[in-house]
Amino acid sequence: MNPGVSTSVFDAKDKSWSGRATFAMVQTLSRDNHLAAIPILDLLVIDEAHHAASASYRRVIDRLLDKNPRAQIFGVTATPARSDGKGLREVFSNVADQITLGELIASGHLVPPRTFVIDVGAQEQLTKVRRTATDFDMTEVEAILNKTPITDAVIRHWREKAGDRKTIVFCSTVAHAECVRQAFQDAGVAASVNRSPTERATT
């Protein structure tokens, strides 16, 4: 987007602040020895900014402001509401802009979604799943959903509605994703598992 700006990366493998813009993961930066190495910065851009109120993000933010109280903090997120109800006012002084899904569809940046819901007989059980600090208990979700009749129903409805399309199937755990992948392959559909950094997986 801006070829004139030099960049660097600070992660588990490379640790460089040499660029005008440095890209990093909060999990790496929030460690004590890495916090100590943060130079004076003028701007901190936070993606998934709804996480900015959490302890790891605050460690990075507080260190930045300790070194430069005049530093600016800019956050962007598609999910501005936290599930724990914790506000972001301590980090961000205002909301500069907001765009809705309807506006993005109207502007041609998103296609109008079509939604199909299937009943696999698990809704009542899912309403009783415990919540953790950040999400539902995915081990409980797996115990409910990782069953052959449910996976078979998913594959059957997928064939009817989207059998000619490349598809992402979100699963509760890596083990669940592996079972769903195998079921799709047994049904003659090429499938693979992609793990996320937090060990949730998609098929």
| Percent of residues in beta strands | 5-15%
Number of strands: 7
Kindly report how far apart the N and C termini lie.
31 Å
Helical residue percent band: 25-40%
Main pleated-sheet profile: 3 strands, antiparallel
Mean pLDDT equals 89
Radius of gyration: 21 Å
The H/E string reads EEHHEHEHHHHEHEE
Please give the order of strands in the largest beta sheet: 5-7-6
What overall form do the CA principal axes indicate? elongated
What structural class do the secondary elements suggest?
alpha/beta
Helical run tally: 8
Taking pLDDT < 50 over at least 5 consecutive residues as the criterion, the unreliable ranges are: none
Helix and strand arrangement:
Blueprint lengths: L6 E4 L10 E4 L1 H4 L2 H6 L5 E5 L7 H13 L4 E5 L24 H6 L16 H4 L11 H8 L2 H15 L7 E2 L2 H13 L7 E2 L5 E2 L1
Describe the structure.
- The chain has 203 residues and is an alpha/beta fold.
- 34% of the residues lie in helices and 12% in strands.
- The chain has a three-stranded antiparallel beta sheet. It has a two-stranded parallel ribbon with strand order 1-2. It has a two-stranded parallel sheet with strand order 3-4.
- A hairpin with a 5-residue loop joins strand 6 and strand 7.
- The longest helix has 15 residues, at 148-162.
- It is elongated and about 60 Å long.
- The mean pLDDT is 89.
